[in-house]
Specification:
Elements: H1 5-13, H2 18-24, H3 42-52, H4 55-65, H5 67-76, H6 80-83, H7 87-101
Helix pairs in contact: 4-5, 5-7
Amino acid sequence: MIVNKKYVTLLKNIYMSREQIIEKNKGLFWYIPEQEKQNISDALLVETLLNYGTLDDYRELIATLGGKHVADVFFSATGRQKQNYYPEIYHFFSLVLKKYQDA
């Protein structure tokens, strides 16, 4: 049986804690002092990972925070916060996260 190594790595990482997700993606939070990174809000974490992360990062975020919570955070963004998402990203994830919002 041939096993895709990338898939096995994803399965190992999918049950990461919130802190592990931040640590794994700390380069995306370069402007936040190291001692403050664990205080990142869920809104900033979701916005940053959806805008700049990979689909694997998205999957880890859903597995860690829960699809419903990520959808709630995403759809609660209004005004300036909503404009922080790239238009293509906002459109794509509004379609993807809709299934969690309706659940």
